Amino acid sequence: MGVAYAVENLAHSRKEATRRQRIEAEQRRRDELRDGYAKLKDVLPVSNQKSSKVSLLERATNHIMALEQANKDLQARITALENEMQRLRNVNEKISLSANNTPSPGHAADGPRPISPPPDGPSGHSLTSVKGQQPPSAHSSPSASENGF
């Protein structure tokens, strides 16, 4: 009878050991889930929403989608700026090439005319050309705006 009791006791201890292992594994799983939710909550922007696990997962999903959209927008902007840089490089190259191939203004017979200053004579831009107005004289009274009014 002692052998049967020992076998029964051994079977019971194996069952108890298996039960304890399962309980410990479940506890580790719950701890890992709790730690995972805490880490997720820490990396999300602060919110006044309730902090249930479901709402936390929804906030995380929305935040990830917003980040993906922002990333997509930034990638499009980078592409547009790279295209603009290339266009400007091409323009700069054309300007450099035309500057190197153009003779100096004094030696160009048929080339573009250099920009020259306006002639010294009277032009159509003086104040005397405005009907009914004379240019201000040196001893005329200052305007109200000059006196701070």
TrEMBL record:
InterPro entries: bHLH_dom, HLH_DNA-bd_sf. SUPFAM superfamilies: HLH, helix-loop-helix DNA-binding domain. Residues 93-104 have a biased composition (Polar residues). Residues 11-32 have a biased composition (Basic and acidic residues). GO terms for biological process: positive regulation of transcription by RNA polymerase II. The keyword DNA-binding applies. This is BHLH domain-containing protein. It comes from Candolleomyces eurysporus. The lineage of its organism: Eukaryota, Fungi, Dikarya, Basidiomycota, Agaricomycotina.
